[in-house]
Structures are given as structure tokens and as C-alpha cells.
Amino acid sequence: MFYLWKCLFMPAGLLLAFMLTACSEDKESVAPGILVSTEWLQDHLNDSNVVLLHSGSAGLYDTIHIPGARLIIPARFTVNTDSNRNEMPHSDSIVELLRKVGVDNDSKIVLYHEKISLLNRTARVFVALDYLGLGEQILVLDGGLSAWLEEGYETTDVLADFSRGNLEPQDLKELIISADELDQQRWNDQVVVIDARSAEEYYGTLGTLEEPSEGGHIEGAYSLSYLNITTDESPYLFRSDVELKELFREAEMDPGKVTLIYCNSGIKGSLNYLVARHLAYPALLYDGSFEEWEELDLPATRPVAIPDKNE
Length: 311
Hints:
By secondary structure, this protein is of the alpha/beta class. The protein has 2 domains: 4-28 and 174-301, Rhodanese-like domain (Oxidized Rhodanese, domain 1, 3-Layer(aba) Sandwich), CATH 3.40.250.10; 31-150, Oxidized Rhodanese, domain 1 (3-Layer(aba) Sandwich), CATH 3.40.250.10. 34% of the residues lie in helices and 13% in strands. The chain contains 12 helices and 11 strands. Helix 4 (58-61) links the parallel strand 2 and strand 3. The longest helix is centred in the first third of the chain and has 18 residues, at 12-29. The relative contact order is 0.16. The model is unreliable at 9-21 and 23-32 (pLDDT under 50).
């Protein structure tokens, strides 16, 4: 499989033609439609190869979950190091977590979050599984358990009965980038850098006589807040594909370019990454994100007033 990131380090004369071809090829191998509806899940709940994963806590899972679902703890799909939070675990650790919940080599994995506060963490689980090379086998339930309950579908407190899985390591996907790589490529005209944090974090906090200014964003980055990815009335549901594509367009994203996504420590940005994959936009995640960027004292645009959209 071709990895988009490699083409960014080709000689300048070959970069544009090669990258555009590569993006086109990658879009063909990454079919859109990662997000599925409650109706779809109801129709496929008893498919023999479907492994339904409840991303949440034992406390709620033991009380209520979708029939057949198996519990995963999303925080276990990241690790904290001495220098950074929420880093990618070793691939062997991810494989073992999946074997424990019965994932086989041919499993179709469906993820869902138990509550809105775990939506970003569940998206980060998706990133970990995509990194493991399982991207073509993963689906995510739009709306999670909240949507399932709202639609009146069956739930249970009966624990799923399954055997240990036989999943074997796959070829890893190069979807995590470093600060140095991002710094080298952020002005490349075939790259778009996206800040997934809130507008307040992106623009930063202006200083006063009493308090210094703080925050800001990576120099050259555009803002597409994770908060805008879901609907206002039901924040556990994603916006329609039409709305999401318009948000992407407004943030200068392009399916013919590589989007480099960051947030504070790699969790919120995972939601943007998931949607980019759903819509077949080539994307990579900088999971060191702004916390590491500031620690390394790399170029940043410091606080400015948030623009008034009414002006």
C-alpha cells in the first residue's frame, strides 16, 4: 500500500505529479462510508464476522449495551510518555487488546461510544486500529449508544459470549507524523494543516495588565474545530456528509492534498481524522500536537482577537 507521507519528501520536480496521482490512488483504496447508521447496524448485528465494540466503562457496559457488544476501554489505546500525552501504543499492545475481545483477521469491526464525552476517545481508538492496518475493516456507529437508544432499538445487560481472537499483526499505516515532519512540510502547497481545537484555543487568549497572553496556533494552520463536526441539537451525531464537506472546503481542505491534523495532545484531532477518512480525504495526525509544538518552541501564531463574523 502506498503511504502518502513518503511522497512529501520526494524531489520538488516530481512532487506535484506524483502526489496528485498517489492521492487519487489512495482515495480508490479508501472507500468512504466509515460512519454507519443505527438502521445499518440493526440489519447487520447478527452477521457472523461483525465484532461490535462498546467504547466506554465497565460500569455502564454491565448495565446497558447493544446486544453482542464487547467492552473496550478507550484510554488503553493511548499511552503517556515522559514527554507527551496520548501517544500511539506499540502495535503489539493494540493487537493484544483486540484479541482479548475476539477480533479475528477477517472481522468487520464496528465501534460505538457509550456517551458523548467519549466520542473523541472512541475516534482515537479508530486511529489506533487504522494505524494497525485495519482501516478497511472498521466502521463507526454514528450517534453511538445515545442514537441507538433514541431509535428504540434493543439493549441488554447480558455479557457477550465470544472466544479469544486470532488477529495477526498487519502492515502498519504511516498516519502519525512528528513535529519535525510537520515543520518541514507546513508550507508545502500540497499540504493543509488543520487545528482541531476550539476557536478560542486556536486564536488564543489576549493578555491583560494582570495576565500574559497565552495559546495561539501552529503558524500556517487553518481552524476546523472538532466541536463543529457534530450537530448542534444532538452533539453525539455527526453532521451530514454534505455539511462536513462544506466545513472542509471552508478550512481549505482538498481531497487532492494531504491534511495534517493536530489539537492539544492528539485526542480531539482524532475526530477530524475519522471524518477525513470517512470522506476519503488523505489525512495524517500529529499526535504530539500543540503541547509538544510549544515545548519545542516551534513557529506559532500568538493570540489575536477572534474575528467577528458579523463584521
